Fold each of these.
Amino acid sequence: MKSIFKDESDLNGMRHAGKLASEVLDFITPHIQEGVSTNTIDRLCHEYMRDIQHTIPAPLNYQPPGYPPFPKSICTSVNDVICHGIPGERVLKSGDIVNLDITVITPDGYYGDTSRMFLVGEASIMSTRLCQITFECMWLGIAQVKPGARLGDIGYVIQTHAEKAGYSVVREYCGHGIGKVFHQDPQILHYGKPGNGESLVEGMTFTIEPMINAGRREIRTMPDLWTVKTKDRSLSAQWEHTVLVTASGVEVLTVSEHSPIPPEIVRPLFGSTFPPKS
Ligand code: MF3
Ligand code: CO
Ligand code: CO
């Protein structure tokens, strides 16, 4: 089952969910500091979702086939953790990079899924560049989205930009359709060939969430069966937005007041419709 929404009330439900997910990141941003534990970040986000937004954190107890229930409300992926980092006692230190991945479920059942990278304290030029290139990869992918474009077009621009910078694209995890369920078809690969794969159709909602490694692309999964790290212990970065295919192109759903603005590199691609309507 894919989400292909036509109905304006479904689209408004998805817009609302996207904005709320992004607002959790806005809320937590000032707390991302040296000395703060990932458990504290998780607790603050959980309380904000529960008490202020009245949303449900989708990760909590999420259990796809073959996995144990995810024990926390958000994912915190630090340094060589690629994705699905479980909040715990780890304390952030200067120079760390951390991805916070938020998925909310609104009271009417819509999902919004988004993540950002944060640089803690004094970041190295190397970590800053990895986070920036990955941000550009996500936005280059978003800029491909319009009716009739192919999924391979998205993967191709992401892979090309990452590899040109000397980085690698993680293959085992991908973007996904999203709507009134968390993960559904289609799979949005972050590598591929132009003109290949499924065609995009107006009304589709899915995520673009490239995971880019500074070193080799291979992964290893920790004994908790969730935490995924780079096999070579190189740094990894990820950014994620939920998008809607519109008649004229793309609408980014996971935007809020403090969303980082799209990078220079995509501005020419959006032309007069920049920034993409939300
Ligand atoms: N938010 C992640 C994604 O982008 C999924 C996290 S599943 C969890 O698809 F259980 F680890 F939270
Ligand atoms: Co996602
Ligand atoms: Co996510």
Amino acid sequence: MSIADDLRSMRDDAVRRIDQASDLEALEAVRIEYLGKKGSLTAILRGLGSLPADERPVVGKVSNEVRVAVEDALSARRETLRSARMEARIAAEAVDVTLPGRRRRAGTEHVIDQIVDEIVETFLGLGYTVAEGPEVELDYYNFTALNHPPDHPARALQDTFYVRDLSGDVATVEGESDVLLRTHTSPVQVHVMERQEPPIYVLAPGKVYRRDVADPSHLPQFTQIEGLVVDEGITFGDLKGTLEFFVKRMFGEDRRVRLRPHFFPFTEPSAEVDVSCAICGGEGCRSCGGEGWLEILGCGMVDPNVFGYVGIDPERYTGFAFGMGAERIAALKYGIPDLRLFVEGDMRFLRQF
Ligand code: DAH
């Protein structure tokens, strides 16, 4: 057998093995075996120089043909394997555009904020503006200027969170007024009347704090909405009309409103306001505890003593005020049996609103 024949059979072996290479790595191994630095075909090509001069042209020609054939086979097979690999990858990474997407859950406003917004909107529509005051408040604003006598039980430690200084004493401002967390939004009335001349039509929503243990009808921190109107000729009829409008807007036109005499230090006369039970309409049923009515807020005509603290002339002006708990309103509106649900952050509950 001539060298040329050896070369041709080497070519045939190489081409067969190239065509059988199952992936790019196997193909590269075959290439190295023949055409690598120490490859068998490389060795022959290198040895051409040492052949006798008469064999050189033939062997040289054949070995070149073999090299070209092997290289052609390699690149053809490489192309095939590359596109197969690409197709496999495309198939593996394919996106099924018919698959339904996963819906992201968007957050919503907390139900209590929704209620506050709804109430605020109602009163903005009546020409009120929104006022704010501090949550860390002075006894003067929270109690004294709201006509609480010095020994009023609401000042007792079990109701009010007092702010203490580093020595453990109740902190005071200018040595006289105790610092506390406001127990109601009524002190905002005093701030507003101190800085603004009548006519005053304001609504003051905000957080309030009481030393209560959380139970179905109490929270140590909750939300109140205060209303204050001071103008010439304001009467109890204005108060009643305003609250009736509000209650029907909030709970429905079919609901009735009832005012019961009550006492608050800062209003005289004072009343508590009830709304007729949605279930029995006032007859009394299980859902309203047989009462027929549900209490929703406190209100009254601004006590002249309060005007005295802020320098408003009680001969010229009269006013009314009211205050309600947003959690309580929300509980009545949606039939929620336990106020703690509003602050526990259980998404299964909150997502319903
Ligand atoms: N501040 C009272 C409370 O927290 C609620 C209240 C009653 C507010 C009568 C008022 C009012 O403005 O006139 O229980």
